[in-house]
């Protein structure tokens, strides 16, 4: 009779439970019995382990074999127990010293040829082993970097069962032929299978693009301020405006405003992505806030998590410590949106299934974006909308009151004007003129006229304000509370010129201020007449 034991880890959500894998050999008819609440994929490990041991040069024991997974009351799922089961069987057959296996945690799936394949959830599994006091962990070679993130644990990465047997038996370690570097690693195929939601961006998650920055946004002063306040204080944000106003662009640049994750937060986010199989290739640790933007056809299970058998993390968990952006929010299912109310308050999701109860972290910053009406053109300022009032009310009522009560900031995003697009460069610090036109910067033509910065002495050195020398000033309409600085129109101003002309270079004869006006001002060559501005209030 032979007996051996080793350890592995069963994941319940993102929390791990150390499982003792015991193998017992007794005389009798050759049989392989696996007990301890295994699921379908774990029950199939009997055939995988037998083929892997034989193809690795080992001898399969022709006795009655019983493998137990303890504690038996904890459901076990997945193929990550294969490596531990094979090692326990070889220890019971005295191919490996059973005393060497007792204090080692083994995680990995076995192929029929004996190669060790990676599984999801390596990081939370190693964290659970470290919390239980284990110091030695064996994982697939391609997942060793992820497992090494846990301090105080010695990690051994193996590529095949032959290598593990040689290490544990103190024998020369065989060399495994590496794969062609120009081809994708077949060992990672199980984590990148298309159509299963486990690819690089299966749930709408995407790494933050380095080129996405808030400085790219032109205009949108109130929306930019709301984004900064939301990111600084952790306030949920609702952006409402017509199509093309820049709602999605602002949301995509919010991760650039958030601070980088600290060590503890990085491990939490990486553990969730590891369980979902969404870790970026070649980057085992996620140290930037995640950004998750699911499509509006997402179901309740896709948003909050769940599944038919084993509960998987949803979009709210994939956005943990980051941004959850719901574009076209009224198009989402009302039941799916209302399911977000509890995670917004509690910071986690608890999912109950027949196999057990799992808990996923879900502390995220929610950003909603919506059109004001079905056609998107409804506004308090314009009357371009053709939707009937009843359609507008039904469209806006798709967002329930309890959900909107949890949103702290609600901002109306207006389209960027042509003046703002033209004046996208940095403006000089303005000197506020007198509102009545009687101050030191008032024009000599009378009240209400404003000259470029420097007063009436500012000139257009290469021309006059009209062809032939006749003054035709460019008129800029001034909104309330906004004043111009330099020679470029500020946001919201409108220039109207009598006829097209070149864009002159303005100069201030009283100071060093200079600037280039992007607006045609009807300046002809050969004159130095002053170009005046009028405030139409």
Descriptive account of the structure:
By secondary structure, the protein is of the alpha/beta class. Helices cover 23% and strands 19% of the residues. The protein contains 17 helices and 23 strands. The strands form eight sheets. Strands 10-12-13-16-11-17 form a six-stranded mixed sheet. Strands 1-2-4-3 form a four-stranded mixed sheet. A hairpin with a 5-residue loop joins β6 and β7 (116-117). The chain starts with a strand and ends with a strand. Residues 180-184, 192-202 and 426-537 have low confidence and may be disordered.
The mean pLDDT is 76
Helix content class: 10-25%
- What strand line-up does the widest sheet have? 10-12-13-16-11-17
What general form does the structure show? elongated
Strand content: 15-25%
Query: Please, how many helices?
Result: 17
Notable traits:
disordered C terminus, 23% helix, 23 strands, elongated, 537 residues, 17 helices, 4-stranded mixed beta sheet, alpha/beta
Structural topology:
Layout (H helix, E strand, L loop, with lengths): L1 E11 L2 E12 L4 E5 L4 H4 L1 H11 L8 E7 L11 H11 L5 H4 L2 E3 L2 E2 L5 E2 L4 H10 L4 E5 L3 H4 L6 E5 L2 H8 L36 E2 L14 H13 L3 E4 L6 H6 L10 H14 L14 E2 L7 H5 L10 H4 L4 E4 L7 H5 L2 H6 L1 E6 L2 E6 L3 E6 L18 H8 L4 H5 L3 E4 L5 H5 L26 E2 L24 E2 L18 E2 L8 E3 L6 E3 L16 E2 L3
Parallel strand pairs: 3-4, 5-8, 8-9, 11-16, 11-17, 12-13, 13-16
Antiparallel strand pairs: 1-2, 2-4, 6-7, 10-12, 14-15, 18-23, 19-20, 21-22
Helix pairs in contact: 2-3
Summarize the structure.
The protein has 537 residues and is α/β, with parallel strands linked by helices.
């Amino acid at each position: 009779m032979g007996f051996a034991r080793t350890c592995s880890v069963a994941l319940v959500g993102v929390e791990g439970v150390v499982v003792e894998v015991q193998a017992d050999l007794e005389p009798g008819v050759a049989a392989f019995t696996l007990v301890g609440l295994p699921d379908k994929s774990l029950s199939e490990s009997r055939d995988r382990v037998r083929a892997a041991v034989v193809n690795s040069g080992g001898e399969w024991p022709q006795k009655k074999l019983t493998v137990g997974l303890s504690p038996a009351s904890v459901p076990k799922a997945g193929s990550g127990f294969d490596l531990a089961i094979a090692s326990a069987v070889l220890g019971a057959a005295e191919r490996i010293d059973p005393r060497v296996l007792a204090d080692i945690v083994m995680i990995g799936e076995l192929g029929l040829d004996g190669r060790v394949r990676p599984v999801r959830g390596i990081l939370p599994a190693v964290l659970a082993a470290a919390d239980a006091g284990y110091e030695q962990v064996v994982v697939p070679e391609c997942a060793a970097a992820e497992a090494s993130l846990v301090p105080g644990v010695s990690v051994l990465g193996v590529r095949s069962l032959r290598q593990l047997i040689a290490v544990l038996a103190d024998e020369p370690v065989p060399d495994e032929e590496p794969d062609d570097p120009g081809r994708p690693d077949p060992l990672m195929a199980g984590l990148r299978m298309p159509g299963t939601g486990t690819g690089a961006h299966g749930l709408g998650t995407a790494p933050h693009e380095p080129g996405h920055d808030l400085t790219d946004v032109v205009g949108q002063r109130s929306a930019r301020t709301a984004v900064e306040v939301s990111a600084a204080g952790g306030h949920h944000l609702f952006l409402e405006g017509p199509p093309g106003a820049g709602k999605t662009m602002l949301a995509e640049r919010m991760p650039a405003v958030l601070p980088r994750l600290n060590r503890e937060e990085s491990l939490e986010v990486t553990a969730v992505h590891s369980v979902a199989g969404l870790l970026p290739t070649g980057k085992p640790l996620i140290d930037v806030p995640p950004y998750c933007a699911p499509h509006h056809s997402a179901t309740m299970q896709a948003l909050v998590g769940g599944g038919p058998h084993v509960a998987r993390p949803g979009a709210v968990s994939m956005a943990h410590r980051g941004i959850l952006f719901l574009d076209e929010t009224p198009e989402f299912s009302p039941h799916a949106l209302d399911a977000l109310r509890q995670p917004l308050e509690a910071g986690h999701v608890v999912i109950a299934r027949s196999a057990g109860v799992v808990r996923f972290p879900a502390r995220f910053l929610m950003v909603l974006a919506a059109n004001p009406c079905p056609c998107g053109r409804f506004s308090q300022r314009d009357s371009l909308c053709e939707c009937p009032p009843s359609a507008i009310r039904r469209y806006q009522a798709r967002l329930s009151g309890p959900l909107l009560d949890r949103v702290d900031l609600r901002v109306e995003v207006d389209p960027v004007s042509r003046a703002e697009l033209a004046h996208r460069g940095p403006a000089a610090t303005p000197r506020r003129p007198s509102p009545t036109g009687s101050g030191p910067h008032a024009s000599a033509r009378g009240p209400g006229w404003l000259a470029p910065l420097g007063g009436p002495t500012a000139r257009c050195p290469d021309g006059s304000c009209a062809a032939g020398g006749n003054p035709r000033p460019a008129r800029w309409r001034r909104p309330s509370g906004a004043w111009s600085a330099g020679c470029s129109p500020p946001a919201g101003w409108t220039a109207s010129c009598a006829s097209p002309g070149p864009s002159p270079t303005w100069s201030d004869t009283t100071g060093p201020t200079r600037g280039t006006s992007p607006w045609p001002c009807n300046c002809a060559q050969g004159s130095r007449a002053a170009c005046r501005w009028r405030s139409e209030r």
